[in-house]
Amino acid sequence: MSYTEFSRRKFLQYTAFGAIASALPGLSRSEERLINKDPDHNLKADVELELHARTAEVPILPGAKTHVFQYTGKLLKGPTQTIKTLPGYLGPILNFERGQKIRIFFYNHINEPVITHWHGMHVPQKMDGHPMYEIYNGERYVYEFEIDNPASTYWYHSHTHDMTATQVYQGLAGMITVRDAEEQKLALPADDYEIPLIIQDRQFTAGNQFQYLHGMHRRMIGFLGDTILVNGQAGSVIPVKTRAYRLRLLNGSNSRIYKLGWSDGTPLTVIGTDGGLLEKPGTMPYVMLAPAERLELWMDFTGRDIGSDLTLQSLDYKGGGPQMGGMGGMRGRGRGGMMGGGLAQGKAFPVITFNIAEKTGDSPALPDKLVTIKRLSAKDLTHPDKTVPIAIGMRHMTFQLNGRTFSMYDHLDIERIPVDSIQKIRIFHDNDMGSGGMRGGRGMGMMGMMHSMPHPIHLHGQQFQIVSRKQNSSSSAYDTVKEGFIHSGWKDTVLVMPGEEIEIIKPFQHFTGLFLYHCHNLEHEDMGMMRNFEIY
Could you give the C-alpha distances from 278 to 368, 432, 485, in angstroms and in order? Predict the structure, then answer.
């Protein structure tokens, strides 16, 4: 099924609502929603830009162009480097500086409701992209906020209720960079030596159109494609010089989890996570990168032979959940595997190749220390004796959080958090099936397979710190991934493996309102694996 065919049902739902709203006295799409249509003229913006959600036809594979949704941008005020357009279908990279006041005029030109979430950014509820604020074709939403995040790699994407997976899959996503004074002092590789790598998997029809999954079981696994795209392009090779580079990685896939490593076994040098630079560089044999997670690498190509290649690849691992995609390597376009997918979760494949094209002796040195991070601990907690639960569960073939599925304004008492507090949160599987798939023998059948799935849990609002990870059973599968988790630094998304429980500490400062937390397997999110925290 192509994306266009899949989205027809959603389009009909949208237009049907419009017809009903028009027919009922006193009810219109504009009256029953509180959207931010107009700018606050009291805000003196440092940066103003337009962001448009449009349809487009773009070349991705040889032959016919691919129909996509696409963010396009136009700078109205601010530094010229604020917007950097990428080739392909992804939105422009938005380059901000900490302390800037931002105004974004967002316009919807597609025939579906859309709202945009500034993933990882600390902004008020009305600016966060909650689906309650979705806008329709021809409407405008004005975002206004101050950049109050450390220097790091963030991103923006559609967050429309029940349509996030399909709209992000169709192209509504882009990268954000934030810089600050502390980072600037480090003189890290910049300009041509700073490379964005937005990694996504897609599947195409024979006519080069996006092919999306359908059917309950496949949606429960999450989309797994057969073609790896980087920055919206397939099979590209990046020429580099014999010097150090800063690589900004974003997993923009719907559900695929990558185990990233260099093809020649060179260790990865990690300098940053979701919410900022680390205190000091770390060396790892590989890194796990779940949907929505970001990672910054320092890679020095010094000493490599001119003309040689080095490939960043996803390595084999276990514990990725039921294998309903193809069981081999790359499959032919549109053919898929056991359940119509392409590359199965946990299989090895190349991601991006770097070609050593030019010799140079000019290269910066890797700093011994990067930034200062205040490490949160029990003494910082507002209520040390209280732990906020995020229980991952499943009932009646439906993924849940804290025993409930998503409802637009719903929240439980345990999901009410006082503003300007710092909370300990425990993320865990609320059933004994959580490690079934990891042990290889328990939990047979579809329900058992679903309970064996990993879940990337994303919390809106401020970044958090990981306090502990605990695997509740010995597992040979967990052994294939455990060395790839980064425990230091600031995070907004954490991958919870089957049988694992994780404790984090998260500030809830400055802003009240409803802030989402959810699984960032986007198919799971659209199926209701999302809840609200009410910050009061």
Answer: 11, 35, 14
Place of tokens 């006041």: 101
Distance of alpha carbon 474 from alpha carbon 471, whole angstroms: 7
- Give the end-to-end CA distance of the chain in Å, rounded to a whole number: 44
| Closest to 291 in 3D by CA, of 224, 389, 214, 203 | 224
Full-model pTM: 0.91
For 464-477, give the DSSP string.
Answer: BEEEEEEESS--TT
Domains in the chain, please, with CATH? 3-184 (2.60.40.420), 191-358 (2.60.40.420), 378-535 (2.60.40.420)
> Is the Cβ–Cβ distance between 419 and 512 less than 8 Å?
yes
* H or E segment to which residue 8 belongs: helix 3-23
* pLDDT in the model for residue 242: 98
Q: How many CA atoms lie within 13 A of 399 on its CB side?
A: 32
State the maximum Cα–Cα separation within the chain, in Å, rounded to a whole number.
73
pLDDT tens-place string over residues 450-502? 668 999 999 999 999 999 999 987 778 999 999 999 999 999 999 999 999 99
| pLDDT in the model for residue 23 | 39
* Digit-coded pLDDT (tens) for 324-334: 543 333 333 44
What integer best gives the mean pLDDT of the chain?
Answer: 89
For residue 528, report the phi and psi dihedrals to the nearest 5 degrees.
110, 5
Q: Which residue has the tokens 């990428």?
A: 86
Query: Is the separation of the CB atoms in 303 and 177 below 8 Å?
Result: no
